[in-house]
Amino acid sequence: MILNIAVIGCGSIAKHRHLPEYAQNKQVNIAAVCDIVGERAEKAALQYDAKAYTDYKELLKNEKIDAVSVCLPNYLHAPVSIEALNAGVHVLCEKPMATSEEEADKMIEAAERNGKKLMIGHNQRFVASHQKAKELIESGAIGKIYSFRTAFGHGGPEGWSADGKNSWFFQKDKAFIGAMGDLGVHKADLIRYLLQDEFVEVGAFVETSAKENTDVDDNATLILKSEKGTIGTLAASWAYTAKEDNSTTIYGEKATLRLEDDPSYSLAAQYANGEVVKYELGAIQSNAEGGQTTTHVIDHFIESIQNDTTPLIDGEEGKKSLAIILGALESVETKKIYSLEKL
C-alpha cells in the first residue's frame, strides 16, 4: 500500500532529511507540503510534485493524507502533532517532541485515542556504531557499565538552518530551549538506548556565551545518574567551531567503547586485557556537505505504519528523553540536583 505523506514545515531538516528520504521510499507518495513562507512551500512542491500549502489546517482538511512529518519550530510540535493525530493521521515529529511534560502527555493521549502512530525523530538510535555498541553491551562483553561521556556540538544553527542568523532556533518564544533541545536531547535519547537504563538524577550548568542576540543556551553540560548507579556527562554546544563532535565513550568493567571518535573507525572497543577491536561501520549522519545518505528514521516510520508495529521511538520514549532536558532546566533554575523521578 502506497502511503500519502505531507511534510509540514519546509526548512532545513525537511529539505535535507525528511523530503529526500520520503522520495527514496517506494512505499510513499509525497502528496503535499506546507510552510508559512509560500515561496519555500512552492519550491518543495515543485521539486517533489506535491501540492503546496501555507496553512497546515487547510492541508489536513483538503488532502487525503496517511501520515505527516512535523518539521516546525519547537513550540509548534505539540499543537500541530495533536491536530494531525485528531485528523486521523500518523505523525513523525521532530525533536524535542514538546516544550513540557503536559504537552508530551497530550500528544501521547491523542495518538492512543485515535489509534495512530506517533514517532519522534531521534535518529541517533539508527546509527550503525550505536547499534553495534548496544549489542556489545547487551552481550555482556563490556561488563558492568561504570560511566560515560557523550557530546554533540557544532558551530550553531546559523550555518545550516533556512533563516541563518535570523532562525527561530535563537528565539526563546519559538525554540523554548537552545543547544540542549537541538542537540542535547538527541544524546539523552541515545544514552538511554545504549545503556537500557533510565536516569533518576540530573545536575546541569547552562550558558549563553558563544552567540549574540539570543536568550537561549548555546553551551550546556549535564551530569547524570541512572537507576543502576551509572554516572556520566552529557554536553551540548553551538560553540564547537572547528569541527562537529558527536562522540560517545562508555567506560565498562571489561572494556571502553569509543563511538564516533575516530574518522576511520566509527567504533573502537578497547579491552582491559589490551586487545583493541576497531569497526568500520560507515559515517554518522551529518549536516556537512556529503553527510546525507539515510538516517533510517523515515523508513522505520513507514514500516511501523505498514506493519502496524510500535515505532522504536514512540511518544513514551520521546517523553523520557525530553524529561532529562526538562530536569536539567529545573537544576539550572534551582541550582540543585534535580530528581527525575518527580516527572
TrEMBL record:
Signal peptide coordinates: none
Gfo/Idh/MocA-like oxidoreductase N-terminal domain ranges (all copies): 3-122
Gene3D superfamilies: Dihydrodipicolinate Reductase, domain 2 (3.30.360.10), NAD(P)-binding Rossmann-like Domain (3.40.50.720)
Alphabetized UniProt keyword annotations: Oxidoreductase
Domain of life from the UniProt record: Bacteria
Domain named GFO/IDH/MocA-like oxidoreductase: residues: 130-258
Record InterPro entries: Gfo/Idh/MocA-like_OxRdtase_N, Gfo/Idh/MocA_oxidrdct_glycsds, GFO_IDH_MocA-like_dom, Glc-Fru_OxRdtase_bac, NAD(P)-bd_dom_sf
Record field: transmembrane: none
Matching Pfam families: GFO_IDH_MocA, GFO_IDH_MocA_C3
Name of the protein: Oxidoreductase
